């Protein structure tokens, strides 16, 4: 399942490092897959002309990748399995970049072979794995569970290489392996399928010692069905498969190490070395012909000798180990390709001729390199303008290009991005603006030099780590920031006044990370900053007292874990060599030093460990996912017995710890793959949060505009916000006067207090701060409403610009720019997608050239695939059947904000719909069965939550007449046609915008004037009043009808889809609470208060009187309900 | 900033020279030293294919314990395999003497030793690829090599220092129970493992839990050494450990191997540290 968590990458000039450890080409020769030491997989597009371009980067592994293999019959499912050093295994769909299945087993694999025997096996086949364990493990290719093992009766040992032999002659598939000590072993495969299913012991059929260590490859010649090629690091040998007699040995010359080999054709082989050379040999029979009868009773012995035909080489060899492979395809359009991947990240391809021949004089011919490519090439080719996050203001300053960012951090509370650079400067900028400047087309608003930013200078060497204490403990001052540099200097800053509060000189190594002591751990009620240096020392600093508490410098190897013992004031330091040091903080003495088993016990006993090597991206992705999962779990548990209404409370408790880290509309995460520099940043949008917040603001603006002075206030508020970049400085004292107003509902209302425009920003921050403190004390889940509307709109607009395909239709572009007030993209964005919990795929610059049918230089920007156009046409075809829709859309399109909200909520809905498990969307069978399915669906993480469902009950979706049922049906139908989520999202967005356009053409009463004046508050509010009135009228009309609908649908399921919708009710027939919800939904106004009482959530309370409340639609209610259950 | 700029060209040149020396001479010196140590370690494991031909030598060890004399035995270790084991167990209740030994045709592989040996040979292989003829061009290259070697060495050491934590059903189902002649009585479980430089044998005496027993049954998890009172379910029966006997013997060459691992790990780390000293001077390029 793939969840669309909108994320956009902001690349730097340099490509992320990708040290290739393993490489493969898929069977269709369209994709190269590489695994890297950094733990990422990279998908490369391979054209029919053997041109390479990078397509996608897959995040998911946390350790170096050890091997790749196909995981299904490739024609049916383009799946590839990857295994990592730490035992993680993942099955990926390499066309969509989606993670299908993942697991972590206590085995380190070094090679995997896919085996499937269609007529004897059920299921999707096996992965035969070998590695740093005895013998062979059989893993189910679908579930990744260990099925069984092949065991050897004689000298069991690690297996270093293997191959599967399909022999037509003996009608039996066998597995040939060579162990690390050089024992060749054979297991029967096809005839042991039954015994594997019965879990009987399976021993090898044959075993023979080859007496050579370090075997690298074993290959069976399928052409002759006789020869066996075995490559050792120092020599290669050819055996006769029939009796395992040695036919040929060739020892390596000039200290080369062989790495592998393959059989090209009958009696023709290719051997490659670790430094990237390869040799093609013809195997010739020597004089001893078969006619020669065995002498002295020995069997006929035939010998061969190799003749070197061709060779390949690389220029810069000997610097890094190479991993090579060979793809032999006999089908016509395909090539015979020799490929290699280097530690430096370079891929090289050689096209091997069908019949390699030597030169006329018999000397070997050199086969030229066909293609060579790196990630960096991709960046240089397609990534013309560098959108590195600080380039916007750095480049113009010294002209010499911006310094590399060595550390960065995002503070969601203030939308601030802090970047430490290699020249020692620290830049503070507004994250959203920086992102916009990088991504969007130049505009007067975002001229590079108009970007507000601040520079903190104090460091002399590159800033290696940053820490924002407030995010770890809300008791700490919000203005504090701590940074550490290469020279072991730590500076304590006030980020608002740009002051250096104190400089600590540690006299140790470069500061690799800064940590904050956990909240439960306080030494005399003070919080401590912990600095980890690269000379393996750990130093504790006390900020307020400006003192160094402890210098722990005894560690022999790098520090990996820091733990705090709250009771006895111990600092527990775990090192890379698995030893543990326990320091007493107050006295600074080394209390204990332990290794081995005891060290492990000590480390396990403390819960609150701080690991020093987090994988930010993965951690983040999984965190957001967990956050969602938590919701499902609680809602399912509470659904079982208790009242429906209790769910929001249950959620609040479970959500709290997570929301703390994910409270903002978006988040910027620096990604370091390996090097000391930050490779790139990823901007995550929280679509759910964004839609919800926008809707609540929208409602609020209705209510305020209904009041007498509403428009006035709004206007003022706007002008205030326009001043925002100028009033960055905030006074710490200003919050005291407004503390009484701490319960302000949201930013819009906060504005009411800001009588003096110049001051209001500061006050706003004061309120926000106050509120933050309060809400954290209350320990109750409330999505922080302190995000101001301008930021919200900007985020929404940026998200839309990133998703829209530009340049398809000039008119459409102009419409978007003028009407929606969003800006064109400079170049296609790299979107990220989350799949299967914590797996993340990120498109690379130049992805748009990987799609077939996309031409370079085409004016279309950011179109995900051709399919999007077809899809959106289909969508449009289904769209205008309802006159009601057009009417509403018209009123909508008269203002940008509502349209944006409408579009976003539509996207949100579509995203949910697409992510719903298939069974959930299409089940027509018995209700009991469905119930179990839905329960499962919840655990796997559908993107639904009752909480948001409730919210949207109240105020979303103006447009859900019956036509939408068909639209939704259409959209959910696409899932069967291997349409990707982003394609659906973009198609729907495109269709909606196009629809808007056509409506605008036909409508008479929507002059473009209002669009131009979009930023003007007055116009907008007027429009809003109009609209709210319209909506009111409409709702009154709709109510009786809605009631009918509800009855019908609860009573009897008629169509599959309505069945799906009503499933929520049917499942809970016994649950009286649900029934009350239904009632409550259909009686619109009177029930509002009831709901408000039942749900003491602020937003609902405040909505109860707003006209927007009446926009609830029973259909939506049902959809939401079914999401809950 | 000014002081840094004062790190003049001359100083940079000296540093550059020193770095080149480090890459060209010092690294190879360390690598050679590492290789020697690891070769020495691998001889301890009597690696096949490293010169010593023929079957690995046999060593006899007498199992003992300072606390108990219930269990006595003699083990014969051949490389990474136990080829013979003679164990005498004095039953605590009736003082009856129980004797059991390995079947003639069977050997018991000590997985921990085998894994450690294989990790060492992989480390040696990594180092052998980079002999004196190889020119290191960047520090990053050295760091990568050191990381790979250290990974193997750490694993080798960890295999010896941290025995696998097994659950009682896992011990019961392991092939070890089938190794003995006469067959082990049903109420006995044995387990061999390596802990640091010691080869340990644990004998668990079991008694079945009565279904009517008032004790609430809680299966014990995985552990290196289970304590009396640990319960588990095996087949249809619920069993409880009544007595645990642990005897061990010191294998001297394992101690040597562990020392070699630690020393070579420290060498690697020191080389890494030396390289990274220069990283601060050339932070602008991949050192």
From TrEMBL, chain A:
Segments forming domain WDR72-like alpha-solenoid: 868-1046, 1059-1107
Key word Ion transport present? no
Q: What is the protein name stated in its UniProt record? A: WD repeat domain 72
Name the encoding gene, please. Answer: WDR72
Alphabetically ordered keywords of this record: Phosphoprotein, Repeat, WD repeat
Extract one GO cellular component term from the record.
cytoplasm
The cross-references to InterPro entries, in alphabetical order and at most eight, read: Apc4-like_WD40_dom, Quinoprotein_ADH-like_sf, WD40/YVTN_repeat-like_dom_sf, WD40_repeat_CS, WD40_rpt, WDR72-like, WDR72_alpha-sol
User: Please, one GO biological process term?
Assistant: protein localization to plasma membrane
One Pfam family in the UniProt entry:
WDR72_alpha-sol
TrEMBL record, chain B:
Location in the cell: Cytoplasmic vesicle, Secretory vesicle, Synaptic vesicle
A single Pfam family it belongs to is Rogdi_lz
Q: What is its main location?
A: cytoplasm
Name a single GO cellular component.
nuclear envelope
Q: Name one GO biological process term.
A: enamel mineralization
Record family assignment? Belongs to the rogdi family.
The name this protein carries in UniProt is Protein rogdi homolog
Q: Which gene encodes it?
A: ROGDI
């Amino acid at each position: 399942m793939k969840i669309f968590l909108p994320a956009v990458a902001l690349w730097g000039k340099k490509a992320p490092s990708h040290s290739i450890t393993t490489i493969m080409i898929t069977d269709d020769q369209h994709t190269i897959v590489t695994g890297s030491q950094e733990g990422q997989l990279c998908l490369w597009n391979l054209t029919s002309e053997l041109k390479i371009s990078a397509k996608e980067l897959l995040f998911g592994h946390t350790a170096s990748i050890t091997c790749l293999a196909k995981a299904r019959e490739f024609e049916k499912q383009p799946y590839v399995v990857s295994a990592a050093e730490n035992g993680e295994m993942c099955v990926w769909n390499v066309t969509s970049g989606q993670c299908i299945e993942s697991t972590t087993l206590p085995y380190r694999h070094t090679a995997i072979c896919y085996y499937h025997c269609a007529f004897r096996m059920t299921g999707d086949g096996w992965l035969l794995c070998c590695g740093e364990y005895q013998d062979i493990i059989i893993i189910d290719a679908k579930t990744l569970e260990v099925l069984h093992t092949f065991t050897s009766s004689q000298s069991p040992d690690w297996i270093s290489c293997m191959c599967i032999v399909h022999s037509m002659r003996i009608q039996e598939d066998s597995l040939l392996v060579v162990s690390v000590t050089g024992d060749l072993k054979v297991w029967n495969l096809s005839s042991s399928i039954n015994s594997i299913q019965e879990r009987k012991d399976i021993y090898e059929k044959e075993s023979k010692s080859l007496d050579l260590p370090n075997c690298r490859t074993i290959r069976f010649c399928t052409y002759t069905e006789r020869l066996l090629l075995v490559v050792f690091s120092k020599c290669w040998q050819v055996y006769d498969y029939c009796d395992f007699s040695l036919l040929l040995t060739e020892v390596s010359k000039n200290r080369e190490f062989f790495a592998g080999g393959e059989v090209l054709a009958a009696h023709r082989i290719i051997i490659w070395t670790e430094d990237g050379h390869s040799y093609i040999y013809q195997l010739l029979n020597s004089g001893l012909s078969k006619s020669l009868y065995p002498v002295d009773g020995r069997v006929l012995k035939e010998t061969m000798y190799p003749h070197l035909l061709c060779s390949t080489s690389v220029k810069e060899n000997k610097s890094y180990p190479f991993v090579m492979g060979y793809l032999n395809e006999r089908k016509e359009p395909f090539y015979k390709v020799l490929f290699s991947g280097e530690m430096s990240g370079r891929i090289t391809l050689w096209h091997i001729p069908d019949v390699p021949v030597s030169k006329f004089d018999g000397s070997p011919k050199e086969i030229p390199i066909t293609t060579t490519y790196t990630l960096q090439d991709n960046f240089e080719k397609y990534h013309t303008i560098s959108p590195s996050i600080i380039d916007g203001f750095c480049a113009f300053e010294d002209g010499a290009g911006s310094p590399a960012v060595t550390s960065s951090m995002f503070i969601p509370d203030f939308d601030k991005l802090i970047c430490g650079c290699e020249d020692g400067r620290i830049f503070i900028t507004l994250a959203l603006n920086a992102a916009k400047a990088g991504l969007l087309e130049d505009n007067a608003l975002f001229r590079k030099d108009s970007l507000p930013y601040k520079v903190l200078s104090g460091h002399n060497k590159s800033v290696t780590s940053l820490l924002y204490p407030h995010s770890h403990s809300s008791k700490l001052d919000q203005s504090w920031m701590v940074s550490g540099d290469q020279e072991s200097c730590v500076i304590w800053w006030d980020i608002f006044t740009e002051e250096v509060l104190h400089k600590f000189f540690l006299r140790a190594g470069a500061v690799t990370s800064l940590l904050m002591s956990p909240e439960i751990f306080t030494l005399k009620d003070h919080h401590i900053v912990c600095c980890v240096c690269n000379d393996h020392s750990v130093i504790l600093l006390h900020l307020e007292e400006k003192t160094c508490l402890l210098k722990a410098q005894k560690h022999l190897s790098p520090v990996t874990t820091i733990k705090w013992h709250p009771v006895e004031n111990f600092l527990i330091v775990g090192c890379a060599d698995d030893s543990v040091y326990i320091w007493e903080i107050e006295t600074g003495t080394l209390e204990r030093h332990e290794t081995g088993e005891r060290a492990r016990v000590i480390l396990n006993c403390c819960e609150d460990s701080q690991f020093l090597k987090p994988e930010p991206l993965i951690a983040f992705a999984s965190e957001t996912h967990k956050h969602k999962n938590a919701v499902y779990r609680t809602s399912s548990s509470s659904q079982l017995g208790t009242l429906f209404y209790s769910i929001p409370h249950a959620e609040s408790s479970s959500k709290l710890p997570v929301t703390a880290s994910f409270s903002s509309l978006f988040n910027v995460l620096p990604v370091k793959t390996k090097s000391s520099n930050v490779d790139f940043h990823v901007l995550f949008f929280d679509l759910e949060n964004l839609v919800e917040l926008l809707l609540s603001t929208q409602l609020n603006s209705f209510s305020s505009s209904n009041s007498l002075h509403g428009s006035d206030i709004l206007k003022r508020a706007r002008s205030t916000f326009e001043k925002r970049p100028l009033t960055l400085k905030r006074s710490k004292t200003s919050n005291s006067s407004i503390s009484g107003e701490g319960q302000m509902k949201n930013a819009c209302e906060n504005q009411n207090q800001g009588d003096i425009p110049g001051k209001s920003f500061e006050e706003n921050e004061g309120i926000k701060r106050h509120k933050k403190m309060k809400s954290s004390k209350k320990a109750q889940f409330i999505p922080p409403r302190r995000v101001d509307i301008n930021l919200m709109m900007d985020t929404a607009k940026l998200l839309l610009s990133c998703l829209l395909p530009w340049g398809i239709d000039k008119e459409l572009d102009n419409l978007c720019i003028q009407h929606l007030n969003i800006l064109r993209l400079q170049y296609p964005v790299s979107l990220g997608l989350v799949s299967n919990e914590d797996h993340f795929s990120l498109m690379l610059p130049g992805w748009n050239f990987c799609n077939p049918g996309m031409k370079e230089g085409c004016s279309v920007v950011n179109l995900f695939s051709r399919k999007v156009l077809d899809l959106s046409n289909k969508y449009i075809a289904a769209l205008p059947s309802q006159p009601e829709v057009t009417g509403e859309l018209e009123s909508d399109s008269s203002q940008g904000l509502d349209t944006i909200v409408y579009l976003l909520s539509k996207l949100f809905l579509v995203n949910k719909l697409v992510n719903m498990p298939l069974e959930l969307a299409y089940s027509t069978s018995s209700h009991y069965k469905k119930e179990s399915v839905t329960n499962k669906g919840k655990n796997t993480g559908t993107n639904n939550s009752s909480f948001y469902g409730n919210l949207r009950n109240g105020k979303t979706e103006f447009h859900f007449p019956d036509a939408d049922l068909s639209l939704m049906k259409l959209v959910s139908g696409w899932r069967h046609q291997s349409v990707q989520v982003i394609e659906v999202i973009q198609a729907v967005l495109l269709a909606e915008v196009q629809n808007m356009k056509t409506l605008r053409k036909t409508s008479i009463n929507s002059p473009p004037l209002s669009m131009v004046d979009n930023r003007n508050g007055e116009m907008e509010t007027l429009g809003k009043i109009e609209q709210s009135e319209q909506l009111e009228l409409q709702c009154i009309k709709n109510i009786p009808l809605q009631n009918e609908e509800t009855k019908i649908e609860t009573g009897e399921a008629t169509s599959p889809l309505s069945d799906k919708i009503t499933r929520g009710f049917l499942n809970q027939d016994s649950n009286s609470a649900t029934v009350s919800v239904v009632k409550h939904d259909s009686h619109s106004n009177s029930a509002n208060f009831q709901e408000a009482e039942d749900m003491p959530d602020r937003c609902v309370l405040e909505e109860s009187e707003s006209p927007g409340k009446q926009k609830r639609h029973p259909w939506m209610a049902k959809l939401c309900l079914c999401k809950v259950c | 900033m000014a002081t840094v700029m004062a790190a003049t060209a001359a100083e940079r040149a000296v540093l550059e020279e020193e770095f080149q020396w480090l890459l060209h001479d010092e690294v190879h010196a360390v690598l050679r030293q590492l290789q020697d140590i690891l070769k020495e370690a691998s001889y301890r494991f009597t690696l096949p294919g490293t010169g010593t031909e023929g079957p690995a030598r046999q060593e006899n060890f007498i199992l003992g314990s300072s606390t108990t004399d219930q269990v006595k035995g003699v083990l014969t270790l051949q490389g990474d395999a136990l080829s013979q084991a003679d164990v005498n167990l004095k039953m605590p209740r009736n003082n009856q003497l129980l004797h059991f030994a390995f079947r003639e045709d069977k050997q018991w592989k000590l997985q921990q030793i085998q894994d450690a040996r294989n990790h060492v040979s992989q480390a040696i292989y990594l180092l052998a690829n980079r002999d004196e003829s190889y020119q290191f061009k960047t520090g990053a290259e050295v760091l990568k090599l050191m990381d790979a070697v250290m990974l193997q060495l750490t694993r080798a050491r960890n295999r010896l220092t941290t025995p696998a934590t097994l659950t009682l059903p896992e011990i019961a189902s392991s092939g070890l129970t089938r190794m003995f002649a006469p067959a082990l009585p049903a109420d006995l479980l044995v387990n061999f493992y390596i802990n640091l430089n010691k080869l340990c044998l644990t004998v668990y005496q079991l008694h079945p839990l009565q279904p009517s027993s008032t004790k609430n049954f809680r299966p014990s998890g995985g552990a290196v050494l289970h304590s009396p009172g640990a319960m588990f379910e095996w087949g249809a029966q619920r069993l409880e450990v009544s007595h645990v006997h642990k005897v061990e013997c010191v294998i001297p060459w394992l101690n040597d191997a562990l020392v070699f691992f630690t020393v070579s790990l420290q060498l690697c780390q020191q080389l890494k540290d030396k390289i990274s000293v220069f990283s601060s001077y050339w932070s602008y390029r991949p050192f």
